[in-house]
Amino acid sequence: MTELDLSPPEGLTVSLWRSLLLNVIDRVAPERLPPLALTSKPVDVGMLAGDLLELPWYRTVFVNLADVVSPETLPPLQLESRPVDVGELLGDELNHGWWDSLLGNIRDRLAPERLAPLQLTSRPVAAFGADSSLQILDWSSLIDGPKLFLPDAPRVSPATAALGPAASAAPADAPIRPDLLSTRLQLTRDLGRTRFRRRIWIGLAAAEAVFLLVALFKFQ
Fold this sequence. Notes:
This protein is mainly alpha-helical. It has a domain at 179-220. It contains eight helices and no strands. The chain has helices spanning 16-28, 49-53, 57-69, 90-94, 98-110, 139-142, 158-163, 178-218. It is extended and about 110 Å long.
């Protein structure tokens, strides 16, 4: 077995002037190579496709009649590989009647096939471009960490509310995370663009419906 050499050919690294000089030398004094010696036995492949297309129509008619009357007897096919059961082919499945598909769906609904439990050996990969192309971001792929449960806001009693906002205790400022803030801004921007595009499509559909109604009553 020979190893595959996927490196670029040496001609790519040759300079322009050297390549031009080598081409001129090959044109003026080409290399004298020994005659080609074939060590393999040629295989009879029959008539080539080009020669077959150049035959006149009457020859093809006679050849077809000869194949119908006395077809060529070929030796039995010898299978050297073990066949693999692939189930029913797609062409055979499409040739069935609609009742076969209906019965198969009812059978799958009443007695579904019992499959072995799926064994996951790798961690799920986040969707490609989830931070730029998707309008609804995948939070599970953006945030990786334990769940944080923030405390509830303190309830203000009626007596404290009557005293005014100065008497109420100011709640402690929650720490601001830049990544969550940027993600929230991007999500808000994407939702706004989605609503704007929806309004445009609804307007176009309404304008088209009005135009069709006007054309229908005008050209009757």
